[in-house]
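Researcher: Here's the sequence for the chain we discussed earlier.
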Amino acid sequence: LSSWTDNTGISHFVWPEWQRWLVHYTNRTEHLLDLDAADLPRVPEAKKDDDGFWVIPDKVIDSWSSLPANAQLAYLSNHLRRSDRILFLHPPDPITPLRVSLRAQRAVILSDDLHMLESGELRRCVLNANHIRYQYLSLPLPYPDDYFDYIVIPETCETTESELERVLRNPEGLIHWRTNDA
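Model: Thanks. This is the structure I predict for it:
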């Protein structure tokens, strides 16, 4: 089955018990009807060119180390090894996980703040940081036991300790950071 869709077009296919693809719909875009292009999120470096298209300069940052990071967590970027996996639950901002995770094998950022996830994902795409994922938080955590070397959470995080212990390899890898309102 081959199907072409527009950017953000939604298609729904089903594989029923009689083992043939069933197409419910393809390339639906009604979710875009009231979309105003001026409201779309963009990284701060994006500028309009002479033709009215948004472009990003070739060199967005001089180095990863020039990215800002939460002062309490910046030290982590020097402690991670290439083989480490790190999980951020409700990070302090969208950029700190990128800055901290530059050496990690894999980084996952989970939050229920969609604006923060969207801002982080935009920056991740611009930097081509394919080892980092911004995802909506769902519980239980969708990862196997002992998957992460580090988990970074705010002191006020309400996620159950047993769920964190399940996906963490070593209890010493649990890192709490203090929120401003704590």
